[in-house]
């Protein structure tokens, strides 16, 4: 353990209500409510970024998006204390950066890059190519020219603009689909170019910014053996042919039930053993499989242990030199994308309550980092 005194402090915080689990009737939310009027009450909570020798990141909104850090400034003390890496949830996706064929919109992302630099943070770019319909600009959907040249130029222009501002990119996002015969998602990019668009995007990104760390990013690779194997086969082929992929992002949108920690760790290890950087890129842990109306104490404890065990699996499977970091997909439960999917459903997947008080899950992360 790195710091026995710090662990003792954490134990005290949990016992006082910050842990919110077990038979203690004082939940973390009621504990937070009793002290939320005094923001200094959380000053003794350890900063996550100080507990790791790799980036600890946060997905944020910017520009005029809901919960933009430039509008909802109450979140900044928590973000600035705990995180040294940022990723834009929306404004660096395709339709925002490249809304028209000959028009790139960089202002909003540049503002976020400036904020990161001014606050000693790195910025991760998300994402150069993604299949999601609303994030493909209309002009691109209707394009009738040379698709490969157009897509290569899209990657080149954006990556070159942010060279020196963005340290790493999700170059291609969610291109694998275990339900198709080919194993690739039959997106518009695949329909136009086959799987070659993936390797060409990495080549274009490397040429545009040789210093950037380039990731393939996807979900459920730790949950689906078939998807993992398809992704590994792609990586093996790329490595043999010299395609410049540096790392893999495991989104890690998971839950407290499955898959097993052993399966998660084996998935990390399979990538790390091939020499790639491994990143937990979009982490959250949902708890409400049965549509409960309350976040019960025993569920809080299960979520805490789940966060702790996943991060311990990451640390056990990935050598220190290959750890690209851990990014959490949102700050407080109320802003999670999970709660936007169904108005009749509620979940509590993140590390902080809506008043920015730390949940038991937060202390699970702390304990995992300290145990390393």
Can you put this structure into words, describing what you see?
- The structure is a single chain.
- This protein has 372 residues and is α/β, with parallel strands linked by helices.
- Helix content is 39%, strand content 14%.
- The protein is built from 13 helices and 9 strands.
- The protein has an 8-stranded parallel beta barrel with strand order 1-2-3-4-5-6-8-9, surrounded by 5 helices.
- Helix 10 links the parallel strand 5 (213-218) and strand 6 (247-250).
- It is globular.
- The model is unreliable at 1-40 (pLDDT under 50).
Write the layout of secondary structure elements.
Blueprint: H1 4-18, H2 28-35, E1 56-60, H3 76-82, E2 85-88, H4 94-97, H5 107-118, E3 122-130, H6 138-141, H7 147-161, E4 168-173, H8 188-193, H9 196-208, E5 213-218, H10 225-241, E6 247-250, E7 253-255, H11 261-272, E8 277-286, H12 297-317, E9 323-328, H13 360-371
Parallel strand pairs: 1-2, 1-9, 2-3, 3-4, 4-5, 5-6, 6-8, 7-8, 8-9
Helix pairs in contact: 1-2, 1-13, 7-9, 11-12, 12-13
Shape: globular
Average pLDDT confidence is 90
The number of distinct helices, counting runs of at least 4 residues, comes to 13
Low-confidence stretches: 1-40
Amino-to-carboxy terminus distance? 7 Å
How are the strands of the largest sheet arranged?
1-2-3-4-5-6-8-9
**Main sheet attributes: strand count, strand direction, barrel closure:** 8 strands, parallel, barrel
Radius of gyration: 21 Å
């Amino acid at each position: 353990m790195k710091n026995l005194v710090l662990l003792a402090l954490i134990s005290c915080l949990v016992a006082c209500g910050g842990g919110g689990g077990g038979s203690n009737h004082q939940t973390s939310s009621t504990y937070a409510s009793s002290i939320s009027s005094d923001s200094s009450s959380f000053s003794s909570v350890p900063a996550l970024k100080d507990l790791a020798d790799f980036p600890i990141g946060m997905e944020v909104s910017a520009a005029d998006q809901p919960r933009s850090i430039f509008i909802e400034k109450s979140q900044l003390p928590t973000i600035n204390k705990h995180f040294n890496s940022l990723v834009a949830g929306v404004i660096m996706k395709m339709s925002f950066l490249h809304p028209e064929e000959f028009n790139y919109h960089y202002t909003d992302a540049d503002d976020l890059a400036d904020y990161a630099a001014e606050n000693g943070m790195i910025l991760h770019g998300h994402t150069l190519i993604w299949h999601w319909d609303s994030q493909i600009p209309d002009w691109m959907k209707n394009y009738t020219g040379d698709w490969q040249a157009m897509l290569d130029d899209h990657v080149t222009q954006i990556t070159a603009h942010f060279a020196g501002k963005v340290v790493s990119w999700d170059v291609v996002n969610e291109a694998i689909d275990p339900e198709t015969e080919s194993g690739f998602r039959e997106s518009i990019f695949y329909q136009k170019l086959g799987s070659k668009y993936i390797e060409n995007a990495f080549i274009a990104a490397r040429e545009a910014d040789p210093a950037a760390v380039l990731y393939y990013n996807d979900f459920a690779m730790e949950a689906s053996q078939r998807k993992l194997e398809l992704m590994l086969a792609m990586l093996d082929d790329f490595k043999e042919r010299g395609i410049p992929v540096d790392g893999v992002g495991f989104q890690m949108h998971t839950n407290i039930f499955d898959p097993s920690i052993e399966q998660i760790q084996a998935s990390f290890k399979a990538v790390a053993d091939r020499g790639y950087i491994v990143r937990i890129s979009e982490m959250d842990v949902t708890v409400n499989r049965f549509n409960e109306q309350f976040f019960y104490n025993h569920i809080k404890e299960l979520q805490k242990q789940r966060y702790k065990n996943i991060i311990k699996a990451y640390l056990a499977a990935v050598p220190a030199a290959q750890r690209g970091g851990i990014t959490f997909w949102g700050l407080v439960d109320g802003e999670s994308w999970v709660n936007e999917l169904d108005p009749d459903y509620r979940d509590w997947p993140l590390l902080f309550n809506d008043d920015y008080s730390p949940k038991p899950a937060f202390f699970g992360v702390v304990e995992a980092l300290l145990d390393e």
